[in-house]
Amino acid sequence: MTTPFHRGRRLRWTPELRALVRETPPLLVEDLIMPYFVVETEDRSFRKEVASMPGQYQLSPGELEKQVEKAVDTGLTAVLLFGIPAKKDEKASGAYAEDGIVQQAVRRLKERWPRLIVITDVCLCEYMSHGHCGVLMPDGAVLNDPTLPLLAKTAVSHAAAGADMVAPSDMMDGRVAAIRAALDEGGLKELPIMSYAVKYAGAYYGPFRDAAESAPASGDRKSYQMDPGNAREALIEARADLDEGADALIVKPAGPYSDIIRLVREHVDVPLCAYQVSGEYSMIRAAGLNGWIDERAVMLESLQGLKRAGADMLITYFAEEILRQRLAR
């Protein structure tokens, strides 16, 4: 006699059965990209915990190397670097200086670990005295086209230092094309661009701005980052960056925009990266430290959800923790 209802539990009865029929594969070491904040300082042992991001640090180049060494020993294969210069100005000159802080860090890491994938964030906000991602008019307007050469110079300088990939995050129109042309002209045709193609002007970036010291001195970034209510615009931005020469795309933030990850995944064939941003990290970490949630379980579930949505790669501040726990088991 046929049972009158679905027996879904048959395939959940044992861990082995659940693993056999699992639709989304578990997290892989190769999925994870760990962000780091490196500081230009004369203090070689500088290490400062970010108050709003417990467990994350601003690091001198020497301390960065020590931190990365521990992570590489547990299996880390890719890093994303953000630089904090000693001085800022209205031309973001530290962003593209040959001896800039990111350039120093790239050389150091690649010399130590030639096979480590070193990705650099290409933006100007950390280097501009006003904290915006582009050249600023006296009235506070961010100028698009005059910003493009500065971004291109920054990307080329990172590549010349040894970066394996550049990731422009500024959201200026045409910046991928400008960077691609500059890289090609500089004999760097093989260097890939992973663009922050879909980046929302959301409320989840506060802890990052503490860590990178990049909060705007006035105004906000809504004139160049996307409105959180828009979905169709995500496809326009993704296609524009692909047309300009991007090799991979990033959606940022991740968790609140898993529908956007799925939407983009269904319309593009290139590798897709989800950036689980600082606010997402800090909420999970704070709840875990207070004993309100099982932090490890929530951390893994949140990232599994991003893979299920369609992400191939994950930028997450939990990368080190995941690798440590994996090694300990």
From TrEMBL:
Q: Which Gene3D superfamilies match?
A: Aldolase class I
Q: Which GO terms describe its molecular function?
A: porphobilinogen synthase activity; zinc ion binding
Q: Where is the active site?
A: 199 (schiff-base intermediate with substrate), 252 (schiff-base intermediate with substrate)
**Keyword NAD in annotation:** no
InterPro entries given in the database record: ALAD, ALAD_AS, Aldolase_TIM
The UniProt keywords, alphabetically, are: Heme biosynthesis, Lyase, Magnesium, Metal-binding, Porphyrin biosynthesis, Zinc
Which transformation does this protein catalyse, written as a reaction?
Answer: 2 5-aminolevulinate = porphobilinogen + 2 H2O + H(+)
Q: In which pathway does it act?
A: Porphyrin-containing compound metabolism; protoporphyrin-IX biosynthesis; coproporphyrinogen-III from 5-aminolevulinate: step 1/4
Q: Any one cellular component term from GO for this entry? A: cytosol
- Broad EC category: lyase
The question of whether Zinc is a record keyword is answered with yes
GO process annotations (BP) = protoporphyrinogen IX biosynthetic process
| Residues involved in Mg(2+) binding | 237
What positions does the entry give for 5-aminolevulinate 2 binding?
278, 317
Where do the annotations place Zn(2+) binding?
123, 125, 133
Subunit structure of this chain's protein:
Homooctamer.
Entry's NCBIfam families? PRK09283.1
What family does the entry list?
Answer: Belongs to the ALAD family.
Task: Spell out the protein name for this chain.
Answer: Delta-aminolevulinic acid dehydratase
